[in-house]
């Protein structure tokens, strides 16, 4: 009997590990294709029903599985600046990306076409809408090249011969032969009605089943489901959400249902949750996971870890030296922040990259504050105040040289 129970327990553990692995892959990749990752594709297919039901019920995400790929349609719980496409420089890049998808949706599977045919079709369509796009302008070609490169990264466009960067640099003297992929029509999320019928951003980011007239009726079960899905979306997608960053009703839900939230996140995503004074925080214990984690591989994360350690040492000697606001955030003046950074540079600068060593304190502070903001660990308030959030002060970094921490 013990052996049978052990085998059953082992099987359950294996199945849960597979489920968590598939869930993480779906969350952290645009899609999983059978051609590029057949093992993960089969893993998603084998756990399809559990994955579909959990993501739909908890986060309002739809899971699409076809004969060639699997995709989780993710919707932000709250828009954040880091959710942008990093390589895009402005609205024109996003518009041309969308028109690239528009052109590809009209192409058959593996149909080949030239870049010149594509850009001419887009230009003519935009002219019919009184929008002038001039391919003789370098900036317009560069925007199109960035959009095309992103489409290639997503595997919805295949370059058979040529490079769009050559076309961007030298114009009509270069061309590219492309091949279309049927996945292009799945890049944008599916909507139950025409996009022009939506009146607000809130309508656009709501899950499709919440757009039905009967949904989101205050005081009903669907209202609770809408709130719960939004909370899960933020907990899943954002590095940290503090109590003061939730609307009142959502904060009450997080505080009263924290044990259930922690259990659900652990069972499906292998994220460990813990309640702190500032909020419910989740951590990932496996550094080999697919998700992007803080500290990152970037040097800015190393410097922020050092800075956190230095501030902790200062506070240990003089606990009241820095002010705190009612949310528990540490308030430093910009001069204090740059001063600590300068002292850290004097002491540890030999370990820093040349780029960081040569930056002025002001430029380096700007860079680190941007990194803090991206990970919801702090921000600059006004011109003179740097606000450090409580989660940042839970870090402590130092250099360890031959086993001796410095």
How would you portray this structure in words?
This protein has 406 residues and is an alpha+beta fold. It has four domains: 73 residues, no CATH class; 96 residues, Arc Repressor Mutant, subunit A; 90 residues, no CATH class; 96 residues, Arc Repressor Mutant, subunit A, CATH 1.10.10. Helix content is 48%, strand content 13%. It is built from 15 helices and 14 strands. Strands 9-10-12-11 form a four-stranded antiparallel beta sheet. A hairpin with a 3-residue loop joins strand 11 and strand 12. Helix 1 packs across helix 2. The termini are far apart.
Radius of gyration, in Å, reads 25 Å
Q: Tell me, rounded to a whole number, the average pLDDT.
A: 88
Strand order, sheet with most strands:
9-10-12-11
Beta-strand content estimate: 5-15%
The helix-strand sequence is HEHHEEHEHHEHEHHHHEEHEEHHHEEEE
Q: Spans with pLDDT under 50 lasting ≥5 residues? A: 1-7, 211-219
Organism: Effusibacillus lacus
Pfam families: DUF2398 (PF09661)
Protein name: TIGR02678 family protein
InterPro entries: CHP02678
